[in-house]
């Protein structure tokens, strides 16, 4: 634990955030659903997507780009698909609704797809994918992002968000295989960390407005131009760019939400951001005998963990392992909040007229 | 065109390959379906996945790992899902059957998923995804690979194939958005090209049996240990590894096909390879008003092409652009065959007792 951090229990952090959302006028059931997803990230060690987002939510509320009393509606539905309108609020509640609809449909007919439009930031994509694997289903969750920060290969301007892909599949002996990845080379959060400790970022993570690679983290944060996964043509940057576009198409073009780069260009002060998400669930039992999928996945996970390592001190892991470790540790010891984040939360609570529950 | 290349028309190449498949005992309808997919690759400039595969098919036939008279069956089916058994033959025919089933289901109920087991090499993934976009649907195609060639991050042994992902979405004014990518940093074919011209490969494409990066293309081909997309931890190699595993799970664990790395370990001389594939189709009309998806995708494609470029001589492209250019050029001028490939095809025809149609 860094010296400027304090540990708070998940329960205390949850009550502090609930008090703020309540003061913002959010309905009690929406608060609890939103916090299920946010605390999932804080417990899993994905600090950038839980309580660390409150500052953005606070700012979006002040700019009147978010309502905290959204009307969430299923606007189209058939036995295998659904389209959900988020009502212009945060993405957590409509996304839980959408993923649960996709899972219900998959449990009935083998597969379910749900798209969400008119939404906003939804936290960590992995939380939704894992809702599916918790029910014995394969889950996929993707989201577009309000503000572009990733350049296409050869481009000098950002056209996509970090457009994450999450994929979860249930095993039996092992925790689920849980992939949760931005389609950029690095996440913005990693550059923020480099900036805080005053270290250069690796060549190839970010470019300046001329499209040239830069290693100064502060310049990278102000230019907001990350490379797509792969970074350069030789190292596969066209693939990360293609994946970012695939996510954008499934989240915005399919749902009817806005393509952020075009909105920013046409109307940077647009009243709404209209972010889109995509959810897919597949029931392995529609393809395999009951239990066969989980048994085979356990075998695959075991074989991967047993792969001969290039460096014995650095064993091969499976996606989801770091989150499982973080959750066990944080449930036991608490969630570390930096002094700065703790102060931010207290300031936001004060501005909202909510009680301050996290000590200084 | 390189000096050792000859140009053959798609029609002549098709007739040569048909003569070989016929001599191998393949049924006429299987021949035509297989060649639809193979010629798609040769015309699109994906030389590694069309006629260039005949040498492998020939060898697998000699090793009795492939039947050319497979019984292809739909073994499970519901209104949104299907499981197809490839009968131990090449993957093209069961995969066309599976993708067409997924598309039929999507056109009826909004989404369709089809998995294939007991199959083998299926050519270029993009050909299947484009079958969906040709019908106005979003298409996804993935495949596992018989022999592992990609190491997990931190691993020194190959555990996955190049496990490609193809994604296609229909536009109106523009050709479809068509992503077709291996989840490794580079494809094996690129290393073969470097070997042929005697040039080192970029640092980070391949490793030796100790897991150390190597740049000698011949060593890379003999060690057969490619890195996952991203290559190193700092540049996102855990993401490419995660994507490769996602593809493996959807193609083998879901269908009940074999996880190649385990089969190779347990029984390197296994009578069958039992390769699996995965296909998904989504109907945009289940979510949007008719034509709205295509119009919005056209806007996105146009905006991406208009992105300010880092280097004006290297404009931003959209996935699928190179294939569209190659197809136009090759339909006009013919498909370039290297002297070596042309000789290989003549030798295979001779061995099969088929007529030689391609001149020397």
Automatic annotation (TrEMBL), chains A, B:
GO terms for molecular function: oxidoreductase activity. The keyword Oxidoreductase applies. It holds the Pfam family Ldh_2. Keywords: Oxidoreductase. Belongs to the LDH2/MDH2 oxidoreductase family. This is Malate dehydrogenase. It comes from Aliidongia dinghuensis.
């Amino acid at each position: 634990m860094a010296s400027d951090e304090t540990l708070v229990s998940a329960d205390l952090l949850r009550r502090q955030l609930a008090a703020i959302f309540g003061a913002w006028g959010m309905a009690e059931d929406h608060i609890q659903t939103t916090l299920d997803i946010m605390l999932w990230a804080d417990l899993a060690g994905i600090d950038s997507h839980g309580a660390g987002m409150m500052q953005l939510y606070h700012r979006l509320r002040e700019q009147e780009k978010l309502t905290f009393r959204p009307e969430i509606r299923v606007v189209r539905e058939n036995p295998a698909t659904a389209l959900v309108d988020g009502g212009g609020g945060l993405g957590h509640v409509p996304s839980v609704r959408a993923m649960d609809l996709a899972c219900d449909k998959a449990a009935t007919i083998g597969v379910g797809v749900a798209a969400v439009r008119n939404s906003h930031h939804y936290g960590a994509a992995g939380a939704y994918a894992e809702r599916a694997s918790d029910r014995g289903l394969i889950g996929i969750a993707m989201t577009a992002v309000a503000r572009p920060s990733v350049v296409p290969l050869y481009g000098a301007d950002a056209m996509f968000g970090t457009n994450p892909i999450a994929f979860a599949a249930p095993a039996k002996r092992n925790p689920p295989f849980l992939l949760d990845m931005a389609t950029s080379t690095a996440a913005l959060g990693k550059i923020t960390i480099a900036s805080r400790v005053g270290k250069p970022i690796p060549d190839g993570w970010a470019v300046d407005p001329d499209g040239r690679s830069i290693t100064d983290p502060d310049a990278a944060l102000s230019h907001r131009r990350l490379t797509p996964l792969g970074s350069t043509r030789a190292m596969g940057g066209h693939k990360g760019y293609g994946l970012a576009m695939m996510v954008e198409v499934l989240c915005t073009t399919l749902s009817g939400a806005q393509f952020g780069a075009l909105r920013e260009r046409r109307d940077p002060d647009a009243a709404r951001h209209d972010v889109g998400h995509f959810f897919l669930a597949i029931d392995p039992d529609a393809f395999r005998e009951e239990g066969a999928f989980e048994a085979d996945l356990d075998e695959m996970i075991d074989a991967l963990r047993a792969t001969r390592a290039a460096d014995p001190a650095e064993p091969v892991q499976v996606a989801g392992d770091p989150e499982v470790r973080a959750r066990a540790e944080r449930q036991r010891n608490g969630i570390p909040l930096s002094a700065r984040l703790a102060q931010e939360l207290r300031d936001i609570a004060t501005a909202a007229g909510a009680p301050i529950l996290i000590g200084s």
